[in-house]
Amino acid sequence: MVLPRLTLKHFFEYCTTNYGKEKALSFVDGEPFSYSELYDKVQYVSGFLQKSGIRAGDRVAILGENSPNWVVAYFAITTMGAIVVPILPDFLPDQVQHILHHSNSKALFISEKQYEKNLEAEFDAHLRIYLLNTFSEIRPRTPIDKLKEMLRDSGKELAKLKIAALKLAKRYFNDVMEDDVASIIYTSGTTGHSKGVMLTHKNLVSNAIASAQIQPIQPGDRMLSVLPLSHTYECTVGLLVAFTGGACTYYFEKPPSPNLLVEAMKKIKPTVMLTVPLIIEKVYKNRILPQFQKNAIIKSMYKNDFLRKKLHKLAGKKLYKSFGGCLHFFGIGGAKLATEVEQFLKDAEFPYAIGYGLTETSPLLAGAGPTQTRVGSTGPAAPGVQLKINSPDPYSQEGEILAKGPNVMKGYYNDPELTAQVFTRDGWFRTGDLGIFDKDDFLYIKGRLKNVLIGPSGENIYPEEIETQINACDYVVESLVYYDQGKIAARVHLNYPSLDRDFKVSGELELKKKIEELLKRIQQQVNKKLTGFSRINKIIEQTEPFEKTPTQKIKRFLYIR
After folding, report:
1. How much is the pTM?
2. Which CATH architecture has domain 452-558?
3. Which among 498, 503, 489, 466 is positioned nearest to 541, based on CA atoms?
4. Average pLDDT in the 350-354 region?
5. What distance in Å separates the CA atoms of residue 42 and residue 74, rounded to the nearest whole number?
6. What's the topology of domain 8-218?
């Protein structure tokens, strides 16, 4: 892809021109529209934004679930030189208000569902609000019945916009520059402090093109989207990368429950999917692993390395078929994948790929395609990205990962002090992650710098590595390791449906006793695999699932005091 400039405007024009007749976007149960039709829709919406007084540099927020209209709004905002502020649908009304105020957004596209959720919110008087489902302008606290009426009349809206839009389509467009801010993304993160990450046009477009070099996309590819577009991972590596090759992306109209997901994969037969470790780990623990433990003969076979690989390959064929039978790229990112699950995918020859990145890096920093994966590694640096280890430990060679490249953010919005803290004097971005390279420059992530525990003699203890061992135990869904009064402790959330099925206890007291025995057994099993200074002193039952970020990382700050 050769562009005059690395801007979303030039990127969008290239894709809609070169793939005009190809299918671009659709709901799973909807009728896809083409890239040329998408171009028209974007022009219409940009036109009415201009008519509403939106100019280059103004902030316009999007609050809604994934949909083709989300994408229309995204490109309408960015191609005219305005700045998109994607808001995660899981944010609470007061968080939404904070983001709108902090970003000084002049307009908001909001879905019906999110509007009802934020109905009582006190929106700023200057804010113009548009219903994402129809692109109709609405006033704050518009009654729900009036909203329903607008939805019924939605077919008329784009026709009304067309006349005004075409007149304005070129009047106010500035020539967007590569270093102009295209998006401000507020991430909940794992620190409890939400930051506005400023990503430029060059950041996003360069990263999409680099990602497409790792896994080329072509017309006819079908991407099934299950992650929020308001997160950089799905927006860049999903949406923008799909555009590089003229693929069609499908969205769910309802949250993708396991049943809806299975039906969608049968219908769409996706060739490309992006996911986070928790999703595939649940599939492995709930559907794959029980098959290897259902009788004594298979359980015995599974202990043999050679036979285990054969069993993995057979199970992998069934798994591949359940995903529609056409996948050639199953991307996994956002958090560390459990080693045993990755080993299964590797043995099964499932077309998985691992990537590593952050919102601040648009996001991809390192990645390997399905044919290059190495268990435990995120792959080498992405094309155009430089990575190095800062002050590596003289013995282990581990240290903080630093990054440079066209994908690294401009900074945090209205926070120059925090921006300065995350860059070295010579311009390297501090990722906050600890890692090590092998002899072939494949990167291995050890954990977050701020999460490292220091042992009694100064040893580095990585809680993520202990959590991987715990999560591999029977009946464990997820865990969190931390220091409690100078001792290593772990909170463990169990698979309660499996416990109910297998324990067959008669009452609450008996169940409690069984769980206590199970936790002791888990502690003993894990400690056998750990060095003395990193062994777990106690395990606590976490009865409710851990609260998580959009990429399904546990919000550690909520549980560690």
Report:
1. 0.86
2. 2-Layer Sandwich (3.30)
3. 489
4. 97
5. 9
6. Rossmann fold (3.40.50)
